[in-house]
Amino acid sequence: MQRYFIDQSKTAGKVFLPEEVAHHLVTVLRAAVGTKFELVTADHQAYLAELISITPGNVIAKLIENLGKDSELPVKTILACGLPKTKEKPELIVQKGTELGADKIVFFEAERSISHWNSQKQPRKIARLQKIADAAAEQSHRNVKPQIEYCPSLKQLLANYPATIRLVAWEESAKEGESSRLFQALAKLQTGDSILAIFGPEGGLSSAEVTIMEENGIIPVGFGPRILRTETAPLYFLATVSFVTELSKNN
Amino acid sequence: MQRYFIDQSKTAGKVFLPEEVAHHLVTVLRAAVGTKFELVTADHQAYLAELISITPGNVIAKLIENLGKDSELPVKTILACGLPKTKEKPELIVQKGTELGADKIVFFEAERSISHWNSQKQPRKIARLQKIADAAAEQSHRNVKPQIEYCPSLKQLLANYPATIRLVAWEESAKEGESSRLFQALAKLQTGDSILAIFGPEGGLSSAEVTIMEENGIIPVGFGPRILRTETAPLYFLATVSFVTELSKNN
């Protein structure tokens, strides 16, 4: 069923739909009065809704019931990705990362980032990625739209993104035969915890960057023996967070 | 380090490089005599190699040592994907699925597949996808190039793709609150086993298709509470197979 986010909290049973939602529902999907769909309010509650009135400039829906379902990961999951070279990779990370439950996706300037987002470009780039996240959140039936952010340096990343557990994907870690730190870290997670995972850009992170991270208590983890591209590793990570916190807890 | 696959098995220390490999190494990468790279022979062994002679039509390398590393998943993992609508989705599944360790990727005509590959189109499509798989296998340092195949019906899929464990990604399964069947299935896997996972196209599988699968002993599993796109679910699945068989066994 079609799902939309609205900025309003539930105040009464009737909702005046925002222009964008009304346009998509009535003009794009040609929905008529009586059509049912889902609305997620600003307080992250998902409702079954029904279209009750369509007049020019005023499209009104009625909230039928709170679906009482929360599709969010039980832990707040933050991806921090070294700015990739191409435009397509951040878009893929954002779209798939949203489907897979990320709470926040931060692109930071890493030592080997070839692309740089200057202060002029950066708000436009983030706005575009946020749109992709919003659409993916509707499509994947999230209760929360992930926040897309930009961070100009590793230093600021480490200072501004605290979390219960902080990891860095480190290929050398896999080469050293390390194969259980990710498992051990995820096994510790409890509902309400937060977890930050840092990923390098195409050229990888430098040893200096990883050393700084280790000095800040960030755990280097391997993701298995194959080399994953910069846009694939975050998806691997999110799948394992879901697997451990959503699929393996209530056997 | 650059890795290439060759069709020869190791017979002696010297290898005449196939034209395509020689072209990429010498013309594209401008490698000179003395350059080191990796070669995977037809018996799936990875060697450190060195370029020892470049003459027109003859590029020769020396195998220095068997790297003794196997980056393959300990279980043979087969993806069976309902043929998606767009060209991009099979390409993404093949590229990312290869990085994540798939042994075989089969595209089958599902009831709700909108695209159809007729017998004229089909070999060309598969050849193109196989090229993407081969390149991704080199880049991700696999020892095996996954096989890309086409299957014209669910019936033939069920008959021709046996496996130790066979699963189907079934959204309704998640809606029913089922959340541990994937975990339970993966926990049973032993080295050398095979696992087949079936995924619907964009419109999903029909209840009839899932019923036929269940009658054939295929287990419906949910992948968490969010709705994953047809190209995202196989990646989630492969990440969990890696996590369980490669990262959680030797704590």
TrEMBL record, chains A, B:
Function in brief: Specifically methylates the N3 position of the uracil ring of uridine 1498 (m3U1498) in 16S rRNA. Acts on the fully assembled 30S ribosomal subunit.
Localization terms from the record: Cytoplasm
EC number in record: 2.1.1.193
Keywords: Cytoplasm, Methyltransferase, rRNA processing, S-adenosyl-L-methionine, Transferase
Principal location class: cytoplasm
Record bears the keyword Cytoplasm: yes
Bilayer-spanning residue ranges: none
Reaction(s) this enzyme catalyzes, per UniProt: uridine(1498) in 16S rRNA + S-adenosyl-L-methionine = N(3)-methyluridine(1498) in 16S rRNA + S-adenosyl-L-homocysteine + H(+)
Gene Ontology MF terms: methyltransferase activity
Tree of life domain: Bacteria
An individual GO BP term: methylation
Protein name in the entry: Ribosomal RNA small subunit methyltransferase E
Domain (Ribosomal RNA small subunit methyltransferase E methyltransferase) ranges: 72-241
Domain spans labelled Ribosomal RNA small subunit methyltransferase E PUA-like: 17-63
Stored CDD domains: RsmE-like
Naturally occurring in which organism (per UniProt): Limosilactobacillus portuensis
Family: Belongs to the RNA methyltransferase RsmE family.
Keyword Transferase: yes
